[in-house]
């Protein structure tokens, strides 16, 4: 049997329950997480000054661990801004619009393009681009605006963000919390992402098609009129030849990144660094070509915009990540060797104790991780709770003796599908706004497909653990 549990383990469990309860009530968890870190420090050291200093130290530890992920997202958003303002994004996607001839094609083309764009740029920057360019085409061929919004949500904020295979922000967070290599979590997530994506998008399309045939869902002519109004999306003008050349070069560079990842076996931080460096070079090149004499100042302006976006998104993540890192290697880094003798980390100790007291089967573990993912996604962030999912996946896997990567991936998928922008109304505002639909209507339309997808994916995970 493992190390004997102490008050330290009890405090950790108490605050985990408190964090989950806070998320269920859709309240912010930062205060609870900070209090939890201080309580862990005070329990371990008996010193108020060490506990208070440990809160700051835990933030430093969490930021150090998350900084590569935050940085690459900041740079990609900054690059996306300059591509949008120069019209390069629109030029890149325009040829695909000619392929759309029917509502069904509109749904699948919008979804697949959104998924591809979201893999490289993340969904938030991709929403405005897809909506501005593809939505008028979809309306023209008979796909209602809510159908386009569903496609953007499910393929972008669902499939692309929950897997996050290129930027690797989500699997990096969950893998670190679970104490696993990023590549292992990504590999385990592939079949689950495929199952979840296939079931959800097919189910949503079936509902859309049924409602269109019955007349319950029609194209809104007012939405089409709004979208056809003049838009000031490209205040910086490039010559058509230069814009077309850059629109070809940008995806080619990222395609070369993907080839390099496979050829050089780049994973995790190395792959993230390659994508981030490429995005930074594109940002510099396009900004200088577009702004010429003002290029130096505009590079800084775009980087500031990117950093503002990144820290606004990850601001709520840092306190909760700081707390859950205390359940593993972060505790010793912040508070020193204050764990009980023989301890391998608070979460590992709890997992061993759980294995010897409560018989946990793979079915119970899979259902628990899906439930935890759903609960943590209720705050509408998707990312704020995936460190919790990773930490608890490690706990259950320790009790089972296997399945850590699959459980981690399952928790990640559930949290991001629920909170990342598919069924929480306040999280899917960007897609709802760009398509001119009611966010609550969009959330209701996504609800059944996402729930069905989660049930099927959980069932599949039970066989993979």
Chain-wise SSE layout:
Elements: H1 7-24, H2 30-45, H3 48-85, H4 88-97, H5 103-121, H6 123-140, H7 145-163, H8 169-178, H9 182-214, H10 221-227, H11 240-263, H12 268-291, H13 295-314, H14 317-325, H15 330-335, H16 346-357, H17 362-377, H18 386-400, H19 404-419, H20 429-435, H21 439-464
Helix pairs in contact: 1-2, 2-3, 2-14, 3-8, 3-12, 3-13, 3-14, 4-6, 4-11, 5-6, 5-7, 6-7, 6-10, 6-20, 7-9, 7-19, 7-20, 7-21, 8-9, 8-18, 8-19, 9-19, 9-21, 11-12, 12-13, 16-18, 17-18, 17-19, 17-21, 18-19, 19-21
Task: Note down, in words, how this protein is organized.
By secondary structure, this protein is an all-alpha fold. The chain has one domain (7-464). It is built from 21 helices and no strands. Helix 4 (88-97) packs across helix 6. 52% of the residues are buried. Mean pLDDT is 83; it is low at 221-234. This is Transporter. The chain crosses the membrane at residues 6-24, 31-53, 59-83, 104-122, 128-147, 154-173, 185-208, 246-264, 270-289, 309-327, 423-440, 447-464. Keywords: Membrane, Transmembrane, Transmembrane helix.
- Straight-line N-to-C gap: 23 Å
Order of helices and strands: HHHHHHHHHHHHHHHHHHHHH
Spans of at least 5 consecutive residues whose pLDDT stays below 50 are 221-234
Instruction: Report the biggest beta sheet as strand number plus sense, adding barrel if it closes.
Output: none
**Class computed from helices, strands and strand pairing:** mainly alpha
Integer average pLDDT: 83
> Strand percentage, roughly?
under 5%
Shape: globular
**How many domains comprise the coordinates?**
1
Q: What is the share of helical residues?
A: over 70%
